[in-house]
């Protein structure tokens, strides 16, 4: 394509979209990145590049789509609602119909959509069936859709690879269900993004549903064994017939970084063989594809490079401040959050723990140290055991716990994940605000503000809050209040004393 071309990328803040945008820019395309929270893209290595335009919008909001699609020739649909609750399929269908209609009205020539691999005549899992139905919904408006179907995407930061990596690294011996013998055809993330871009150059792909894979067929057990081998570990497996996909997703939630609401639809799809049977795209767009082992080696090499540029991860997907978690946790959240007329605590908007810490550090240096909180740097040596205990409690009932770690490097940006927190606000040298995604009866925040002091030095204002939404909010705050002194006092002193910490993503 030699003519100036504008392409719209939905899901630009997500895992696939975040990897595709820079490749499209490298091709000289004008990329319009659609995001509900455009500020989340400020941390990406492609931020500020020539040819990139970031716009605020939502695939469920027709008005924002009409504005974003003006002058667009091709549109990428890379969003899905997995993890928002049991009605994710209905949400996806409605969004796809809205997007397809908006593309038709804007004169878009083609929609490119990434779907899930699996035969339509199989007893597909709800997740895979939803991916296929979403493609059908996109086609209803009449705009040609190129639907690419892929199985497991292997790359640093993908949810599927995080599961494989964590299981292989943490469990040298595993009891697994019989469906680990199911066959799949993984594909490297760089091959996925290459195909997504290359289909624009091949007219025969317009209006087609095509399957992409590495050409290698594995069982899920062999995926784990190969990853363990690359890690230099031994892996043993015993297969039993009694573990259901639902129970397995809770197990994965406990032993891996991936939350149960993400793990469950992925695991339920494991009962299906997901192997390419339509090989047309390999004829139309020939490419030397990465082997699974090579893809694992590349992914692990990136995980081991703390100073690498900020790349997309599955955790970048927007979550609600009040988390949507697995069944056990969801039941608990709904019960705890239910408003009640009975109040034992004062009527106030929130419960607060406020502390200040004076230091000789300059504001810029104090801000840097605030930005190092969490992950390997922890929350203070003496208080870290309490944080880990609370993390395990959260993980058991369906929350994210502390396993997600933090971004590589020293900078934080809005939307970044730090353990069970998500960065809600960043003002350079002035403020970092975190909102909790752990299981709590209300909205919990941790706010750090930096005040320059006359004559040099600075003051750290540290504020922990919990919204007062129900009786249970007060009961929870009262239950944990006795440990606030050792936890939050140690946190503040840890921040102003931290030196030489080099955080790395987990």
Question: Would you give an account of this structure?
Answer:
The protein has helices at 15-26, 62-68, 88-106, 126-139, 159-170, 189-198, 220-231, 245-255, 260-268, 280-284, 292-303, 327-337, 363-370, 384-396, 471-480, 484-497, and strands at 6-10, 30-35, 52-56, 74-77, 110-116, 145-150, 153-154, 173-177, 183-184, 187-188, 209-211, 218-219, 236-240, 350-359, 417-418, 421-427, 431-436, 444-452, 458-467. It has two domains: 6-313, Rossmann fold; 327-497, START domain (Alpha-D-Glucose-1,6-Bisphosphate, Chain A, domain 4). The two termini are 40 Å apart. The chain is built from 16 helices and 19 strands. It is an alpha/beta fold and 506 residues long. The strands form five sheets. A seven-stranded parallel beta sheet has the order 3-2-1-4-5-6-11, with helices on both faces. A six-stranded antiparallel beta sheet has the order 14-19-18-17-16-15, with helices on one face.
Give the biggest sheet.
Answer: 7 strands, parallel
Q: What is the number of strand segments?
A: 19
CATH architecture of the largest domain: 3-Layer(aba) Sandwich
Question: Per DSSP, what share of the residues sits in E-state strands of 2 or more residues?
Answer: 15-25%
Give the overall form.
globular
Task: Give the % helix.
Answer: 25-40%
CATH fold-type name of the largest domain: Rossmann fold
How are the strands ordered across the major sheet?
A: 3-2-1-4-5-6-11
Structural class determined from secondary elements: alpha/beta
CATH superfamily of the largest domain: NAD(P)-binding Rossmann-like Domain
Runs in which pLDDT lies below 50 for 5 or more consecutive residues are 320-345, 499-506
CATH C-level of the largest domain: Alpha Beta
Q: Please work out how many helical segments DSSP would assign.
A: 16
- Give me the Rg, rounded: 24 Å
Q: How many domains make up the 3D coordinates?
A: 2
Question: Mean pLDDT, nearest integer?
Answer: 83
State the separation between the terminal residues, measured CA to CA: 40 Å
């Amino acid at each position: 394509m030699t003519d100036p071309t504008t392409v719209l990328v939905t899901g630009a803040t997500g895992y696939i979209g975040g990897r595709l945008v820079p490749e499209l820019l490298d091709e000289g395309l004008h990329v319009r990145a659609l995001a509900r929270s455009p500020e989340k893209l400020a941390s990406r290595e492609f931020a500020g590049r020539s040819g990139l335009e970031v716009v605020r919008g939502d695939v469920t909001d027709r008005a924002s789509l009409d504005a974003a699609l003006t002058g667009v020739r091709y549109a990428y649909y890379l969003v899905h609602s997995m993890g928002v609750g049991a009605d994710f399929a209905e949400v996806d269908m409605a969004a796809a119909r809205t997007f397809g209609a908006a593309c038709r009205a804007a004169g878009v020539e083609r929609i490119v959509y990434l779907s899930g691999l699996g035969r339509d005549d199989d007893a597909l899992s709800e997740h895979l069936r939803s991916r296929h139905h979403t493609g059908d919904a996109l086609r209803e408006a009449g705009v040609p859709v190129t639907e690419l179907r892929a199985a497991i995407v292997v790359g640093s930061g993908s949810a599927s690879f995080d599961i494989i990596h964590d299981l292989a690294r943490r469990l040298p011996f595993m009891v697994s269900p019989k469906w680990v013998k199911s066959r799949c055809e993984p594909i490297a993330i760089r091959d996925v993004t290459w195909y997504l871009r290359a289909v624009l150059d091949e007219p025969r792909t317009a209006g087609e549903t095509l399957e992409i894979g590495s050409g290698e067929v594995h069982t899920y057990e062999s995926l784990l064994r190969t990853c363990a081998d690359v890690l230099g570990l031994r892996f043993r497996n015993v297969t039993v017939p009694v573990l259901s996909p639902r129970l397995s997703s809770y197990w994965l939630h406990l032993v891996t970084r991936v939350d149960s609401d993400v793990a469950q639809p992925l695991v339920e799809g494991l009962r299906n063989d997901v192997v390419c049977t339509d090989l047309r795209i390999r004829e139309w767009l020939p490419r030397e594809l990465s082997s699974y082992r090579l893809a694992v080696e590349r992914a692990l090499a990136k995980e081991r490079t703390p100073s690498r540029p900020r790349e997309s991860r599955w955790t970048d997907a927007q979550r609600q401040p009040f988390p949507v978690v697995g069944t056990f946790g969801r039941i608990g959240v709904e019960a705890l959050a239910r408003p009640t007329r009975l109040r034992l605590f004062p009527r106030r908007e929130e419960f607060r723990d406020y502390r200040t810490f004076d230091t000789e550090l300059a504001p810029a240096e104090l801000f840097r140290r605030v930005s190092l909180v969490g992950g390997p740097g922890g929350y203070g040596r003496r208080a870290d055991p309490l944080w880990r205990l609370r993390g395990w409690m959260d993980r058991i009932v369906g929350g994210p716990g502390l396993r997600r770690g933090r971004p590589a490097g020293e900078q934080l940006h809005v939307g970044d994940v730090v353990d069970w927190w998500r960065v809600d606000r960043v003002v350079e040298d002035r403020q970092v605000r975190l909102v909790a995604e752990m299981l709590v009866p209300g909205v919990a925040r941790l706010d750090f503000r930096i005040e320059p002091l006359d004559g040099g030095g600075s003051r750290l204002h540290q504020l922990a809050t919990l919204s007062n939404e129900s009786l249970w909010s007060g009961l929870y705050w009262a239950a944990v209040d006795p440990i606030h002194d050792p936890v939050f006092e140690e946190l503040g002193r840890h921040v102003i004393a931290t030196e030489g910490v080099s955080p790395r993503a987990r």
